[in-house]
Amino acid sequence: MPELAYLNGEFMAIEEAMVPVEDRGLQFGDSLYEVVRLYGGEPFRLGPHLDRMRRGAEVIGMDLAAAGDLDEIMQELALRSNLDTAFLYLQVTRGVCPRNHLIPEDLDPTVIATARKLEAIPEEKYSRGSVAFTRPDLRWARRDVKATTLLPNIMSRSEAIKRGGYDAVHYEEDGTITEGSVSNFFCVIDGVIRTHPANERILSGISRATVLECAEDLDIPYRESPFSIDELMEDATEAFFSDTYSEVMPVTHVDGEGIGDGAPGPIAQRLRAAFRDVVRRETGSA
Ligand SMILES: Cc1ncc(COP(=O)(O)O)c(C=O)c1O
């Protein structure tokens, strides 16, 4: 069935969806986005994705209510595209006006959404695990806001992939690890899962929250407290990413050095199984 776009009230083929050259999303990155996964045609945790966009809109002073009923739009897009495994992409820009740094009032937001087929990651990739490369975190200081200003992230991700990696692991000037370029990052130290607190320095991932729920259910202790590259390299027995695409992806090597014994860790594997159980329970598919 078709890959589709939605633009300001109309559904159409993706190639037909066009925005004006003075859209503020295009000129300033003055826009927010979400990527929601469909499992068996059902959106996974659409509500939390839209709540996150609403929180972001409050921070940047965007009138998201004027964008219409986003839940209905996304459900309708899922229904009309009738795709099984897919990404629904949603972007709301502040709207169109002559270029001006001053944030204008009363603009009609531009609402864009697309439904694209997705190739699920093969199982053997999870059992092999992935490698990662550290890169400085160059994004802005409000990474909790899922804004489309992603230039630093596309640069670090491309660099990591060029070097044969799965994703970059970002760190701040003092060596604190924040997150991946499209993911949250975890390690295990002394049997305790560690991940950066969900504050302004990282995006609070919907998958991250799912992972922490799974840890709670499995009685695996976790601490949302910052850790450094040195702690990761010297003390961690395992590491993994979480995000909408990969769910839970074990990391076996960082910058060419093995984490723990250099194989996917047991905690990451249990969390991934638990994550898939949650998906199955909530969408009827996985
Ligand atoms: C910078 C960043 N961190 C974390 C994530 C993971 O978020 P989620 O689990 O909601 O996909 C993403 C996803 O796009 C991201 O771009």
Question: Can you lay out the helices and strands and say which pair or pack?
Answer:
Layout: E1 4-7, E2 10-13, H1 24-28, E3 31-39, E4 42-43, H2 46-60, H3 70-81, E5 86-93, E6 110-117, H4 123-128, E7 130-136, H5 151-162, E8 167-171, E9 177-180, E10 184-189, E11 192-195, H6 206-217, E12 222-224, H7 229-235, E13 236-243, E14 247-254, E15 257-258, H8 266-283
Parallel strand pairs: 7-8, 7-14, 11-12
Antiparallel strand pairs: 1-2, 1-6, 3-4, 3-5, 5-6, 8-9, 10-11, 10-13, 13-14, 14-15
Bound molecules: pyridoxal-5'-phosphate.
CATH architecture of the largest domain: Alpha-Beta Barrel
Mean pLDDT: 97
Shape: globular
Distance between the termini: 19 Å
Helical content stands at 25-40%
Account of the 3D structure:
It is built from eight helices and 15 strands. Helix content is 30%, strand content 29%. The protein is globular. It has two domains: 4-117, 2-Layer Sandwich (D-amino Acid Aminotransferase, Chain A, domain 1); 123-283, D-amino Acid Aminotransferase, Chain A, domain 2. It has helices at residues 24-28, 46-60, 70-81, 123-128, 151-162, 206-217, 229-235, 266-283; strands at 4-7, 10-13, 31-39, 42-43, 86-93, 110-117, 130-136, 167-171, 177-180, 184-189, 192-195, 222-224, 236-243, 247-254, 257-258. The strands form two sheets. Strands 7, 8, 9, 10, 11, 12, 13, 14 and 15 form a nine-stranded mixed sheet that branches. Strands 2-1-6-5-3-4 form a six-stranded antiparallel sheet. By secondary structure, the chain is an alpha+beta fold. Strand 1 (4-7) and strand 2 (10-13) form a beta hairpin. The two termini are 19 Å apart. The structure holds pyridoxal-5'-phosphate.
